[in-house]
Amino acid sequence: MKNLKSWCAAVGAGSLMVAGLVAAGPAVGGGPAVAGAASSTPLKIALVIPVTGTGAIPRIYEDPVKMAVAALKKKGVNVSETVYDAGLTPQQAITATQDALQSKPSVIIGLPVIPQILAVTKMLSSAKVPLLQLSAGDESDYTGTTKGASVWSFRVGIANSVEATAGAQYIVNKLGKKNVGIMYETADPPGSEVNAITKVVKQAGGKVVATQGYSYAATDLTEQVLAMKTAQAIFNWGYPDNISLALKQQYQNNITVPTMSSQSGVTGYLDGLFTNPTQLTNFYSAATCNPEGKQNPKLYAWSQAFKKQYGFTPDMNSAEAYDAVNIAQAAVSPGGGSPAVLKRLENSSFAGLCQTTYKADAQHNMGHTGVVIGFKTTTPQTVYSYTAKP
Amino acid sequence: MDISSPRVASPPKPGVEQEGEGEYGMGRFVTLTASGVAQGSAYALVALGFIVVYKATSILNFAQGALVTLGAYLGIWTVVQGGLPTGVSYVLVLVMMAAGGVVLERAIHLPLRRRPPLVVVIATLAAGLAIQDLLQLWQGAAPKSLPAPFGTGVVHVLGGEIPYQDVLVVVVTLVVFTGFSLVFSRTTVGYQLRAIADNPAVAALQGIKVRRMAIISFAAGSCLAGLAGLMIGPLSSVSPTMGFDAMITGFAAAVIGGFGRIWGTVVGGLIIGLAGQWGAGYIAYQFQDMYPYILMILVIAVLPRGLFGSEISERV
């Protein structure tokens, strides 16, 4: 009995010692610590993204989030991430988000599909968990204080109109092309982008000479391309394969005017859809940032490190996903519960790579700078940037 | 007619406006028509795969779209990723597709051949969806590019531009349809297929090996799907769902032409392709995708057997 008591005391003391060492964390021997890491609130990330389903490319979100989490862990931050498959439909998003909320995450990152965000709005509001969404959309697409949206929803990137304005300003003001044509994919009509482009064109005294829509599944854009014959420049807001098809047919029909696309152009370029380098000499994309451009050294360095680790070139979506993790960490780690986290997300500025600074506006769009990327050289270069006035 | 080498475009000079040829010029008509003919030829090629299988088995093979996509991805695998010469790659793809067709027949048609036809049709649709998902797992979801065998150059005709790939699609379709037409009308295999299509039970009693014909038809249909994929792929880009739309439109072409009619299918395809392009160009581009299906409904309403289908008489 005496030996048993002694044994129990020794085990108990040892346990207390181990617990103390764990609590001390990096201060004892874990490497450089983030200030306050030992006492910071654990960051539990639920990454809700399309993993399965037609067109799902999970790695563009999963890998940068993993990279960001690993970097935080190296600094001693208590962080974890779990992936939930949101598929592509609203119902799948609801199931995935319900699943994620069961684990009581600090923050949800993902949901790049706009209809899915609408579907989970009420769940976010009742669970009081912030969503850092990785969608591209209009300013008021289910974020912030818009009717039907949730105040817990924040867009990490820029609104579509900022991207379109950057592109339009470059074409109209820098290249001097005032009579333009606009092509767009009809399943998701780019209302705010067309309005933004038209506004810039009209302010410069120009006009939109042709506007043509096309189906996202179109395998031929002859009519749309021919309609652009009198334009001095062409805007094309669609999916990567639409844009590459249009560009190919433009050149086949001797239409070589400057062409500006949405950020899908960058994706198409990285996917290798533009097989004729000549077509790229006058081709541009408006995007949230350019990970391949050396003009942003920090972003470029990250892009090279990412490529080395994961074997593919990251685009702006991946850079935003990476930044989302660090925004989450900065908002959550000081603690104070959900209301405090919400307040920080609404009012604080956050440093990032894709956007140098993230700060939520009234509609909870956190990014405000769009860039224009040119493809004349072997790597995409940033040729213009535009920052929206608050 | 001016056959140009592939165009090397130079950037426009600053300040120089591009000249237009007028909204309704001959060049525009030629370009739209050529595009319509090429698209229609591609649909006809897909439809021929339906017809070949249907003639031998009375089954509509709704895996045909996925097989078109598979052919395109096999093209990317051999040409782009494998670096093989285009001609060798294309032959290899057709051989692989024929083998795939045999597998499909053994896995789907053989075990279910005594079931109601609808059961087999649903099974082929399920097989198609499975193939589509497997393709996405294999090659990923991002669209890929299949190079055109003769590059992206154009032929100039009356002020219009006709891409080399469009010419290739039309030529290949004409050759294939001529070949199958001769097979069906001049060869033993063709006679046997026509006999089976007319009455499988009587054909079997006559000594025709119905099951062997089923295997041959699935192999041929799959081969045709692969060829369609190799022709359609370079026209735009290759993605896991590209074949589904081609299958639906090919089916519409077969219905318009008179289901089962070889050359009727070609005419049906041309009508669909031209309706899409001319409708978009001269009526309203917003309804470009609708024109083929509106036409199909109109044709069925007026001529239920299609443009060239034959009357079906029934003994009473």
Class per helix and strand makeup of chain B: mainly alpha
Could you tell me the mean pLDDT of chain A?
86
Order of helices and strands of chain A: HHEHEHEHEEHEHEHEHEHEHHHEEEE
What is the overall pLDDT average of chain B? 85
Shape of chain B: globular
Biggest sheet layout of chain B: 3 strands, antiparallel
- Return residue spans of chain B where pLDDT drops below 50 for at least 5 consecutive residues: 1-22, 312-316
Q: Can you tell me the residue ranges of chain A where pLDDT is under 50 for at least 5 consecutive residues? A: 1-38
Helix/strand structural class of chain A:
alpha/beta
Q: Radius of gyration of chain B in whole Å, from Cα? A: 21 Å
Task: Give the % helix of chain A.
Answer: 40-55%
What fraction of residues of chain B sit in β-strands?
Answer: under 5%
Specify the CATH class of the largest domain in chain A: Alpha Beta
Distance between the termini of chain A: 74 Å
- Greatest contact between two chains: A-B, 50 and 48 residues
Number of DSSP strand runs of chain A: 14
| Biggest sheet layout of chain A | 7 strands, mixed
Overall number of structural domains of chain A:
2
Number of strands of chain B: 3
